[in-house]
Amino acid sequence: MTPFFSIIIPAYNVENYIERAISSVLKQFFQDFEIIIVNDGSVDKTVDIIDGYAKKNENIKVVNHLKNDSQHIARLDGVAASNGQYVVFLDADDYFTDDALNILFDEIQKNISYDFYEYGYMEQPSGNIIFPSFTEEDRFSSYFSKDKYPAHTMWNKVYKSILLKKAFTSLERVYINNAEDMYESIVISYYTKNIYIINKVIINYSIGTGISTTYKDYEKTLSLMQSIKTMFDLVGNFIKKTNQNVDFNNLKYKVLNYLITNFINTQKDEKDKFNLYLKISDYFNDKIILEYLFYNSKYLSQKKEEIFFIRNSIDYRLGHKLLNPLRKIKRLFH
Length: 334
Fold this sequence. Notes:
The chain is of the alpha/beta class. It has 13 helices and nine strands. α8 packs antiparallel against α9, α8 (218-242) packs parallel to α10 and α9 (248-264) packs across α11. The longest helix is centred in the C-terminal third of the chain and has 25 residues, at 218-242.
């Protein structure tokens, strides 16, 4: 019998959290589900914990990777192994609210024709509640607009399985962590016709265990920058393959601003912050940086760290050489 929900949990070295995630599913009042746990090459006690639950619960399926292949590939394999009518991704360090699946089932039954449903979550341990703020249905175009920035998280949505499996056939099987949500979300949005917003809390999202630990960590931020570069390559390939007429640079500007504001400027060590600024040109090409700095000033908050970076960068000096003659000509006509 086909389960209503497939709950997919990628798991890599999460021995401290995985039991909480699994038990939050098992104790749901609504029980028409399967759990697919993808062990992504864990080397701690994660495997033992997963196997223990699988032996006691027939609706738990385990997919094993011999090595760490990344959360992106774990999701691909989890979706391929799923049989449910709808798919929900649950990160191993997060967990459902007590009546999560019952709420989702009721909302889907009342609004059956949608491709995916986006819902609210509670940050833990702060208790802050976040509801979906972006309600437009044409998300694919929105990713490449100047002013819009749709949420690109995969873990606060429930997807119609037939749509998700179709979208996932267009995803490349590449190692990518931290920026995989945006890549996957953009491709899914290409296939999506309509979206329904559920203004109810379904997930407890743990702060300080996943990508949020990157905010003040130099090496993790460098890794994120590499992941962003990989994501751009993957999205670029998809745009070319589907022959989409979008302004890819708009997405790059927004991501560059997000990177600077939320990861580089939050570094604890000023030296690390400066070094990360100097690394930007390794991951964003000169054209993007110049246009970000000089033509899209609305993206640039006037923080001292950014000003310091700009005034000490090759791109800044090059930009002035290029722009000064144009500014002189412009002044003649004003």
